[in-house]
Amino acid sequence: MARRSSRSRGFTLIELLVVIAIIAILIGLLLPAVQKVREAANRTTSANNLKQLGLAAHSYNDVKGRMPYAGLKDPTTNNGVANPTIEGSGGWQYQTMPYMELDTVYRSWTFDGTTFPVAGETRHLITIKTYLNPGRDRGKGYKTQGSSNNITSGPVTDYALNTRINFPATNTFLTNNQSIGHKDEKRALQNIPDGTSNTIYAGEKALTMTEFNNDIANSWDESVVQGGNGGFARCGNSSSSNDAAGRSTFLLVHDNLDNNPVQNNHFGSCYQSGVQVVLCDGSVRTLRYDISPDTLCYLYHPADGQVTSDY
Q1: pTM for the full model?
Q2: Which of 58, 91, 217, 259 could be bridged to 222 by S-S, CB 3.0 to 4.6 A?
Q3: DSSP string spanning 96-143?
Q4: For the purposes of burial, counting CB atoms within 10 Å of the CB of 179, is it exposed (0-12), middle (13-18) or buried (19 or more)?
Q5: What digits encode the pLDDT tens for the residues 201-225?
Q6: Cis bond before residue 117 (omega within 30° of 0)
Q7: How far is 101 from 86, CA to CA, in rounded Å?
Q8: Are residues 287 and 47 in contact, defined by beta-carbon separation less than 8 angstroms?
Q9: For residues 45 and 134, is the Cβ–Cβ distance under 8 A?
Q10: What's the CA gap between 298 and 139, in Å, rounded?
C-alpha cells in the first residue's frame, strides 16, 4: 500500500494572484469610506473649535462690553504685540485666551513690541490645537520666522475673524476697507442691528496649500502674537468696487495649490461640503461654496439691514 503524503498543497501562483487582486479591490472599495469617516471626524473637530471660539467671544463681550477685534499695529501701543497689560494687543484669539482655558499662555506673553522677538525667545513657539483645522496638515502649528524681523512668528490659526463686525457704521457695506482690523467700532453683541443669528463672527479661513507647512509667516498666515495682521482676519471680498464686479468677489475658497482664486481676504476650507463659520449667536453653520455673493456679504456685515436665511 502506497504511503499518503501528509504535506498540504500550497497556493498556486494563479490562486495567489487572484487573492491579491480581491484584497486590492476590497481596499479600493473601503478607502473612500475611510476617507469620508476621517473627513467627517475632522469637520466635527473643526466645528467644535469654532464653537469654543464663539463662546469665548460671548464671555469676552460680557466682561469687556464689546466684541474682540483684530488688533492694531500701532507703534505707540506696543506695536500690536501681545501683552496682557495692554488692552487689545495681540490678535483676537490672544485677546480671548483667558476665556478658553489658556490664561497661563495669555499671562506669559509679556512681550515688548520694540524688541520682540529677542534672541532665544521661545515662549510663543507653541501649538494651540483649538486654533487649527485638523483637516489640514499644519505640521508643528507655529512659525519660527515671520515678516517684519520675525515679529509675526508664533502659533498660526486656521480661523479668521470677520472684521466687518467692527467696521464703522458709515462704511459702505460692499467695499473692502481696512480689512485686517485697523478700524474698530467697539461693537457689542447687543448692538448688532441685523441680529447675532444673521452675522458671522469667525470662520475657517482660505489658505493656499503651499502655506500649510511653510515655516515663514506671510501676509495672510501670520501668527496670533501681533494684532492687525491678515493671517487671522478676513473681510470676505477682494475688491474695493461697489459695482457688480466688486460684489462678485464675495466668495468662499476651497484649498488649492495655485492660490486661485486668491486667499487674500477670503474665508475657505479643505472640506468638500463647504466652509464652517460660527455666527455671533454662537451657532456653527456650514456655508456652501456656491453661496450667492450678495448673501455672503449680508452675513458678514452686521448693519446692512439685510437679513437672510438662504444659505
Answers
A1: 0.86
A2: 217
A3: TGGGTT-HHHHHH----TTTPSPTT--TT----GGGS-TTS--TTSEE
A4: buried
A5: 999 999 999 888 888 888 789 999 9
A6: yes
A7: 20
A8: no
A9: yes
A10: 35
